[in-house]
Amino acid sequence: MSNIERLRDTSFGVHMAPEQAPLKVAVLLPCYNEEAAIADVVRGFRAVLPAADIYVYDNNSRDRTVERAREAGAIVRHETRQGKGNVVRRMLADVEADVYLMADGDLTYDPLAAPLLIDRLVSRQLDMVVATREGEGMQSRRGHQAGNRMFNLVVDRLFGAGFTDILSGYRVISRRFAKSFPAASGGFEIETELAIHALDLRLAVEEAPVRYGRRPADSVSKLSTFRDGFRILWTIAMMHRALKPFQFFGAIGLALAAVSLWLAVPLLGTFLDTGLVPRFPTAILCAAIMQLAVLSAVCGVIVESVAEARRETKRLRYLELKAAA
C-alpha cells in the first residue's frame, strides 16, 4: 500500500504493517492579511489531505484572515512577533507531527502536489523536499525571479550544490529536521536558513517541480524586493561566517594581505635600489595591514573548531530523534 494511501486514511494513515504507527501530517500556513485567499487554501489542502491537521498561524492580521480560516476548518493560532521567520519558528516548536508541510496562504501553491511531495519524503526517507516553482506566477515577477537565481548561485558557491529554488515557501520536512532546526531568522530569510541548515548538515534533500500560480487580484505580496533581498544576502553572509569561519576570515585575511603587498612593492623596490625607506608611514601601514591579515587567518582557524563542535551538536540532536517510518 502506498504512502499516499496512508495519508488519505481518516485516522492519519493506514497501517502498512500491524506494528507500524500511522503517519501524522501537519499543514502549516503562516498568514498575514490573507483574507482573500486563506479559505480556499485551507479547503484545497483539506481535499487532498483529509487526515491532516491544518494550522493557520496568524501574524497580527488586520483583516478577516482569522475568521475565514476558522470557517474553512483550520486550527488557528497566533504569533505576535511580526515576520514570517518568527511564525515558522513558533509553528515548528509548537506543532507535533511526523511530517510537516509548509506553504503560504496566498493561493499561489498547488495543493494537489502535496500528497506527491509527502510520498517522496517518506518513501525515499528524506528530510526535506522543496517544491521548485514553475508557471505563470514566476513569469509575472521578473525581479524576484532574477534575485532568486542570484541567491541560489551565492548559496551554491558558499555552501555547496543542492537547491535551485531556495526561496520557495512550499516544502515538506521531516520531524527530525523540524525539531532539530535552530531557527534564528525573523523574516522572509527563513527559507534561506532552512536550505543552508540542510546543506551544512548534509541532510537528505530533494526538489520537485510544482506549478506556481498568481495571487488573487485583491491579495497583496508582503515581500519587499530590495529590503528583504538585502536581509537575505545579510543572512547568507552571517551564516557563512558562523558555519564556514575559516573560509570567511581566510578570505578577509587574503584580501588584507594582498593590499599590504600592493602597498609594499614600491617601497621594497626603493629599498633594494637605495637601501632607504623614504615613505616610513606607508611602511608602518603595510606592516599593520599584514598583522591584521594574520590575525584574521588565526581567528578563522580558532572559530572553525567552534563551528565544527556546534555542527556535531546539531547532528547529534538530529540523530536523537526517531525517523518517520
UniProtKB/TrEMBL annotation:
The keyword Cell membrane does not apply. InterPro entries: Glyco_trans_2-like, Glycosyltransferase_2, Nucleotide-diphossugar_trans. Residues 27-178 form the Glycosyltransferase 2-like domain. SUPFAM superfamilies: Nucleotide-diphospho-sugar transferases (SSF53448). The keyword Transmembrane applies. It comes from the Bacteria. The chain crosses the membrane at residues 248-268, 280-307. Gene3D superfamilies: Spore Coat Polysaccharide Biosynthesis Protein SpsA, Chain A. Pfam families: Glycos_transf_2 (PF00535). This is Glycosyl transferase. One of its GO terms (molecular function) is transferase activity.
